[in-house]
Fold this sequence. Notes:
Helix content is 39%, strand content 18%. The protein is an alpha/beta fold. Strands 1, 2, 3, 4, 5, 6 and 7 form a seven-stranded mixed beta sheet that branches. Strand 2 and strand 3 form a beta hairpin. Helix 1 packs antiparallel against helix 2. The two termini are 25 Å apart. The relative contact order is 0.11.
Amino acid sequence: xxxxxxxxxxxxxxxxxxxxxxxxxxxxxxxxxxxxxxxxxxxxxxxxxxxxxxxxxxxxxxxxxxxxxxxxxxxxxxxxxxxxxxxxxxxxxxxxxxxxxxxxxxxxxxxxxxxxxxxxxxxxxxxxxxxxxxxxxxxxxxxxxxxxxxxxxxxxxxxxxxxxxxxxxxxxxxxxxxxxxxxxxxxxxxxxxxxxxxxxxxxxxxxxxxxxxxxxxxxxxxxxxxxxxxxxxxxxxxxxxxxxxxxxxxxxxxxxxxxxxxxxxxxxxxxxxxxxxxxxxxxxxxxxxxxxxxxxxxxxxxxxxxxxxxxxxxxxxxxxxxxxxxxxxxx
Length: 331
C-alpha cells in the first residue's frame, strides 16, 4: 500500500483534470479493497501489542523529522553510581569466572557461577530496592547483560530472562501486596528461579490468537481454583525453575467467578508448597531440556495434565482472571 500512496501523491500534483482525478480515486479505492481482503487479519495478540505503550522517537523516524535534542531530553543514558559500581565490580568478576570451553563441554554454568549470580542479585536487577532488588534502570540492566554476553552467551541469557520475561515485572505491576511481599524478595535474592511459560507447539508465543492451553474454573473441597491442561516448550530456565509463570485461556462454564472473567490468565506455580498453594501444584512437570542452537543455557518444557491451581495463584488474584493486558509487556 505504500507504493499506491506514493503514486497517488505524485498523480495528485501532476495537474490532471477532475475526470482523471475521479478515475484515479476509483482505481486506488478498488486496489485498496482487494489488498485489504487478501492481507492476513491482525490477531488479538498483535492488536494488544499495537495498542500498548506510546509513540515517541520512533514516530519521528517515520516522519523523517528527528530531533536528537528531544531524544536526549527524553531518555537519560546516564548510569547511577550503583549501576556503574556493579558493572565495574560484580559484573567484571562474573565475566572472569566464565570459561566458554568448560561451559560448552558441560552444557551448563559451573555451580560457583550459579551461586554467584544468585547471591549478587543478578536475577533481581529490575526489582525495586524495597523488595531486596537492585532497582536498576532498563539502560543499566541492558549494559550488564551486554557485558556478560561479550564473554558468554549462556550466562547472559541466564541473567537476562528473570529481568525481562518475568514473572518479576508482572508481579510488581499487577500482583497483590501479599504476592509481591512473598515472591519479589525471593526472586531478587535468587532463592526462587523463575521462568515464564507462554510458547507452545501449535501457537508459538501468540498468546491470544491460537493458544490451546486451557483451564476451567472449579470448586473443589471448598477451594475455588482451576483445572488446567498445558504443554509449553522452549521455556528458558524451565529445567531449573522453582517458580513457573503460566499463561493459559480460562473458561468459566459454571459461572463460579465473582470478580474476574474468562480469557487469557497468568498464574504463578511454585514447585514446592507455599501459602498460595498449600498442597503444592500436583502434576506440574518441568523439563525435558531442549538444546536450542547448541547454546548451553537452560531451556525446556513445562507440562501439566488436568492440574489443579488455586485461584490465589493468579497474578493479582481472582479479580485479574482473564485480563489479557497483563501480557502486554511480552507481546
